[in-house]
Design a protein that fits this description.
The chain folds into two domains: 6-122, Rossmann fold; 125-219, Winged helix-like DNA-binding domain superfamily/Winged helix DNA-binding domain (Arc Repressor Mutant, subunit A, Orthogonal Bundle), CATH 1.10.10. The protein is built from eight helices and twelve strands. It has helices at residues 13-25, 36-45, 63-71, 87-95, 108-118, 152-162, 171-175, 184-201, and strands spanning 6-9, 30-33, 50-54, 78-82, 100-103, 126-127, 134-137, 140-143, 146-147, 168-170, 209-212, 216-219. Strands 2-1-3-4-5 form a five-stranded parallel sheet, sandwiched between helices. It has a four-stranded antiparallel sheet with strand order 6-7-8-9. Strands 10-12-11 form a three-stranded antiparallel sheet. It is elongated and about 65 Å long. Mean pLDDT is 86; it is low at 122-131.
Amino acid sequence: MKKNQILLIEDDTESAVYLQEFLNERGLSTDIFTTITDAIFRIKFNNYSLILLDLNLPDYEGYEILKFLNSEKFNIPVIVTSGYADTQTKIKTFRFGASDYLVKPIDPVELEARIWVHLGKSTNIKQFSSNSMFKIDSKLIYFKDKLLKLTRIEFKILKIIIESPNQIVYREDLYKVLSPKSNHRTLDGHIKNIRKKIKIIDSESEDIILTEYGLGYRLNV
């Protein structure tokens, strides 16, 4: 059994496959099952690290998984994913032993962050300097302890800049993470989007990534 094996119980095949691919790319090997019956059979013979559980399934409600885990004394964290946003449903799932609850549609980046917390990986965050406002954990970047919702390319660009605080990061070095068809306007667009996302968290941090005209960019920390 692979380390950090995830069991995804979801009957929306398209959403499940998309999420599986997203998590697999981030080192979270994920199995998909569409029914409670099949999922329970696999749980008995596999050491899953975490379960992602939809409540509405073809054969039984998702609560049956929680009941099964309780009766068999399986200590596996369960993140419930559901279209139900009402407090009553949330409380019911927690009473049955759910570890977390996310309302659909799910942001996969937020889901990944929650998964790592429940897997006990949250202490593996790397902080690049004692006074840095940025932290990186796996494929995620946090600003002032809040998750930045970055695209894959934005993550790569910002990571390079963060790793060189108060130093000029030349445009030529950042071009390397872009596609061959990209140009200087593409890079400028990514930087603009990163700045916007930082500003959402802290409106006074607009100038944290400075433009060094004709050269590149610099992290101002």
